[in-house]
Amino acid sequence: MTMMKKLHMTAAVVALSTTAVAAQEVEVLHWWTSGGEAAAVGTLRDTLASGGVGWLDMPVAGGGGSDAMTVLRARVTAGDPPTAVQMLGFSIQDWAAEGALANLDALAAEQGWADVVPAALQRFSTYDGSWVAAPVNVHSTNWVWANTALMAELGISQPTTWEEFVAAMEAAEAAGHIALAHGGQAWQDATIFDSMVMGVGGPEFYQAAMVDLDPEALGSDTMVEVFNRMATLRGFVDDNFSGRDWNLATAMVINGDALFQIMGDWAKGEFVNAGLTAGNEFTCFRVPGTEGTVTFNSDQFAMFNVTDPEAQAAQLAMASAVMSPEFQVAFNLVKGSVPARTDIPSDQFDMCGQMGMAQLAEAAAAGTLFGSMAHGHANPPSVQNAMYDVITAHFNGEYDAATAAAELVTAVEIAQ
Ligand code: GAL
């Protein structure tokens, strides 16, 4: 090969690799694929673009992120990790323990993250005293989303007890409506389960069963009652629930086909994306029995270790954008969640957002703020998945309530 030819080839290779990994570009793995979620991703992509950082999209559909985490594992095993990854709670800790995450301490110190990120979130954003993730929001998961026109038509006022909640759903069913919009996917079953655990047992029981994994709590009569309530909820779900995506369930409430959905406040993102307003066409209230408590999860961006200085610079630009107060407002207005910083006024948020922010602060102060099991903030993924299996098997009628509680004890023991 002539020298000239060799030079040309080298130039071609360089040109190719700079297109594949453009200067200042982040490849972002996330599971934000519904209408509201995609709109929220758009705010992040646009913010980065205005700072000259490109966005290589790596969406993996599937609420709750289990499928995204499977894809992530495959990418890392293949030696090709994405630069930035949406991640929840204990998963962040697992990846940090593997030494896979970039250290964000210098940026965090420069921007004073420690002063503005609540302790409940820092517990997951930091590992071994170092910042390994930037939190973009706080979602709370013990919400009911309701169609207000349907409530008015049925003469239903906001239920405040489990009995009133059941009575409201009976009224909807009697009038020929679907009482509870739900998608039969393990993470959705687990989301409503979290609220039943809190509603039946209260904060101490939630702590004992979901966080401390105390076998006595897991197998208790209280837990049997939790499963009884799950069966009651199952009775209010329509026949086509199996496998339905959460946003399609939300659409049933939006369209007036269903009265209620129990779901985290990403559901609000769907209402807002459909042009609806909280307190007008839809409303939100805490799952009856869980008032005064908040189960939460926080979407965070973890940066995977990369060696290319351009890629590292892009990671820092992204982390910095994510943590900016202006961005946290713009993003969370669309996403349905609330900011991951404590120094942001709530006046731009709607009724549900303002309630969410106030109740989050109150619960944190009162000691009634708990990580959601369903969303990876109560226990490690191995335990979480073991719980998912039992909850879904029971929801689908494989176990009665007493058997389910006993199975939960065994499954959790094996998973640890
Ligand atoms: C959660 C995530 C939210 C939301 C939801 C449904 O785990 O934290 O941001 O998108 O899944 O996809």
From TrEMBL:
<dbReference type="GO" id="GO:0042597">
    <property type="term" value="C:periplasmic space"/>
</dbReference>
<keyword id="KW-0732">Signal</keyword>
<comment type="function">
    <text>Part of a binding-protein-dependent transport system for a sugar.</text>
</comment>
<keyword id="KW-0813">Transport</keyword>
<dbReference type="Pfam" id="PF01547">
    <property type="entry name" value="SBP_bac_1"/>
</dbReference>
<protein>
    <recommendedName>
        <fullName>Probable sugar-binding periplasmic protein</fullName>
    </recommendedName>
</protein>
<dbReference type="InterPro" id="IPR006059">
    <property type="entry name" value="SBP"/>
</dbReference>
<comment type="similarity">
    <text>Belongs to the bacterial solute-binding protein 1 family.</text>
</comment>
<feature type="signal peptide">
    <location>
        <begin position="1"/>
        <end position="22"/>
    </location>
</feature>
<dbReference type="InterPro" id="IPR050490">
    <property type="entry name" value="Bact_solute-bd_prot1"/>
</dbReference>
